[in-house]
């Protein structure tokens, strides 16, 4: 029975091979939960020397919801996504694009 658990742990280490996969999934989830038009959500991934940059595109009508008053929602999104990146040991930046 312990052999089965050991196999699962080994599979987890090989799981997410895409840099920033957890961060991408978290950003996708948050963006879809906040906006009124989930079909308008698109995320571009760019890998560079400084880590991964996730560019979030939303419908023009949803831009205010994603940014929030004084940018508080946007900053909260960035904080949570960076924390997910830290879990994968990948520095992540989030850009919200018009």
Descriptive notes:
The chain has 98 residues and is of the alpha+beta class. It has one domain (18-97): 2-Layer Sandwich (GMP Synthetase, Chain A, domain 3), CATH 3.30.300. It is 49% helix and 20% strand. It has a three-stranded mixed beta sheet with strand order 1-2-3, with helices on one face. The radius of gyration is 16 Å and the shape is globular. The chain starts with a helix and ends with a strand.
Q: Could you state the CATH homologous superfamily?
A: K homology (KH) domain
Number of domains: 1
Shape: globular
Find the count of extended strands (DSSP E, 2+ residues): 3
| Rg of Cα set | 16 Å
Q: Helicity level, as a percent range? A: 40-55%
CATH class call: Alpha Beta
Return the string of H and E elements: HHEEHHE
CATH architecture: 2-Layer Sandwich
Spatial sequence of strands, sheet with the most strands: 1-2-3
Question: What is the CATH T-level topology?
Answer: GMP Synthetase, Chain A, domain 3
Work out the helix count: 4
User: Which residue ranges are poorly predicted, with pLDDT under 50 across at least 5 consecutive positions?
Assistant: none
Largest sheet: 3 strands, mixed
